[in-house]
């Protein structure tokens, strides 16, 4: 549950339910929702009815899942300041030229949240569907965004324990801070099989939206499709995508 000092406990209760559903890959029963949220069953059932009427949640079998109404509201996040259009325009050129995926993300707490993705025409296994979250310390997008903060801000933001996703994930704060310093110098953040084995990611900070959101763009490419020459070409291209997004955002500011 959220802070007990909140002035709007009803909103806290709704948020608690939605957070549980968002983290589950299958329908969640009312009993499990009560267990995870600590809500009384009578309160929970009234809340579920209200959320279902608004299509923020949907009944599926004996449980509940996130509903289409909430998805529609969430999409407004990237449509409001034309961010998705700006991203897709810049990313389309990259995909056409290099046939590799491009992704857009924002920093939320100690995680990155994927906002959009422009897919290529050849397969690559990704975990970057819209709304997906990843620990910022583990991925190139996260490093590109964390590098915009001071070391003190980064340390306040990150958890005490940096969880490993693969055996190459950075799990020491001092090592991460050293890498962020390198990102600040070069403007390029790397993820070398730190999120998925056999997958490399290159990310660049792409500026701040009119709403004050710091964003970054990236491309993820299997190791077997990379060589020194192609890597240099890809890096130059993703830097151009970031510059194009930044320029378009500045024009709208």
TrEMBL record:
<dbReference type="GO" id="GO:0003677">
    <property type="term" value="F:DNA binding"/>
</dbReference>
<dbReference type="Pfam" id="PF01614">
    <property type="entry name" value="IclR_C"/>
</dbReference>
<keyword id="KW-0805">Transcription regulation</keyword>
<protein>
    <submittedName>
        <fullName>IclR family transcriptional regulator</fullName>
    </submittedName>
</protein>
<dbReference type="InterPro" id="IPR050707">
    <property type="entry name" value="HTH_MetabolicPath_Reg"/>
</dbReference>
<feature type="domain" description="HTH iclR-type">
    <location>
        <begin position="8"/>
        <end position="68"/>
    </location>
</feature>
<dbReference type="InterPro" id="IPR029016">
    <property type="entry name" value="GAF-like_dom_sf"/>
</dbReference>
<dbReference type="InterPro" id="IPR005471">
    <property type="entry name" value="Tscrpt_reg_IclR_N"/>
</dbReference>
<dbReference type="InterPro" id="IPR036388">
    <property type="entry name" value="WH-like_DNA-bd_sf"/>
</dbReference>
<dbReference type="InterPro" id="IPR036390">
    <property type="entry name" value="WH_DNA-bd_sf"/>
</dbReference>
<keyword id="KW-0238">DNA-binding</keyword>
<dbReference type="GO" id="GO:0045892">
    <property type="term" value="P:negative regulation of DNA-templated transcription"/>
</dbReference>
<dbReference type="GO" id="GO:0003700">
    <property type="term" value="F:DNA-binding transcription factor activity"/>
</dbReference>
<keyword id="KW-0812">Transmembrane</keyword>
<feature type="transmembrane region" description="Helical">
    <location>
        <begin position="63"/>
        <end position="80"/>
    </location>
</feature>
<keyword id="KW-1133">Transmembrane helix</keyword>
<dbReference type="Pfam" id="PF09339">
    <property type="entry name" value="HTH_IclR"/>
</dbReference>
<keyword id="KW-0804">Transcription</keyword>
<feature type="domain" description="IclR-ED">
    <location>
        <begin position="69"/>
        <end position="251"/>
    </location>
</feature>
<keyword id="KW-0472">Membrane</keyword>
<dbReference type="InterPro" id="IPR014757">
    <property type="entry name" value="Tscrpt_reg_IclR_C"/>
</dbReference>
